[in-house]
Write a structure and sequence with these properties.
7 strands, alpha/beta, globular, binds nicotinamide-adenine-dinucleotide, seven-stranded parallel β-sheet
Length: 257
């Protein structure tokens, strides 16, 4: 799909990857971009730079997503592309308190469910639409030092696959973004973390990879090309892959046993 002339919603637009998506989509000639974030001031800064509209929304609350989609469809027009990009990280293992598991689950997974629930009927009725869901390389390869992040990002990939296989015949296109480390607020001070083992990418090439993948209407957005080889190694020999991940955990993990 070409982005020129399209109405686009981006969550997590105040900062990092979401902000870069807004800038890059605007450069492609998008008709209008709704810049959505919990941080309204940050969303306003992004929106004013690109002539978009800012919305202060907590994507971890179902009603707020439903209301956002209703408002954008009413005030701006039919949404062509919805980017569920806002996400958080929570460090730790199974000891992480349930409230924190629930919070990251709602933001990293349920926000994608709620957006799809509201948009699939609308998009299907008009012959199609596009969902771009931000997961992570951690959604394919897991995350040393963070069970909640690794698990929720896997769930985000699983949901994106499910949406693609279930609604593809209704014209719904789905892509899932799975980068390794990107230089944003989320990774500030973590330059020596395991996710940055292959280096830190700037947000701009990540947004560029999104544009190229959406143009090609392909499922997987992989800004870090090495991720496909790690995936191949995993499917080739799962036990050897777990052994390699244990080595990384010994080197980088901070989980107490
Ligand atoms: N930075 C990386 O290395 C990296 C790698 C892989 C995937 N990701 C994913 O990319 C996405 C964007 O992260 P980023 O690196 O740009 O981080 P970031 O912290 O720079 O941006 C995330 C934005 O999401 C917003 N946000 C957080 N919770 C929200 C909520 N409940 N409702 C609305 N907005 C909320 C924040 O205010 C922030 O502006 C996330 O889903 C993250 O998991 C990041």
């Amino acid at each position: 799909m070409e982005l020129k002339g399209k109405i686009i919603v981006v969550t997590g637009a105040a900062s990092g990857i979401g902000q870069a998506m807004c800038q890059r989509f605007a450069a492609e000639g998008a008709k209008h971009i709704a810049c959505v974030d919990l941080n309204l001031e940050g969303a306003q800064a992004t929106a004013s730079e690109i002539g978009g509209t800012a919305y202060g929304v907590n994507v971890g609350v179902a009603d707020e997503i439903v209301q956002l989609i209703e408002t954008v469809e009413r005030d701006i027009g039919p949404i062509d592309l919805f980017c569920s990009n806002a996400g958080i990280s929570v460090a730790g293992g199974v000891e992480v308190p349930d409230d924190d598991w629930q919070r990251i689950w709602d933001i990293n997974v349920m926000s994608h469910v709620w957006a799809a629930r509201a948009l699939v009927p609308l998009m299907s009725a008009r012959g199609g639409g596009y969902l771009l869901n931000t997961s992570s390389a951690a959604g394919l390869l897991n995350q040393v030092g963070s069970a909640p992040y690794g698990v929720t990002k896997h769930a985000a990939v699983g949901l994106a696959e499910w949406l693609a296989m279930t609604y593809g015949d209704q014209g719904i296109k789905v892509s899932v973004l799975c980068p390794q480390a990107v230089r944003t607020e989320m990774t500030r001070g973590h330059e020596d973390h395991v996710a940055a083992i292959d280096g830190m990418m700037e947000p701009e090439p990540v947004a560029e990879a999104c544009v190229q993948t959406i143009r090609a209407e392909e499922f997987l957005v992989l800004p870090h090309k090495e991720v496909i080889n790690y995936m191949r190694a995993k499917t080739d020999n799962y036990d050897r892959w777990i052994g390699g991940m244990r080595k990384l955990n010994r080197r980088f993990g901070e989980i107490e046993t």
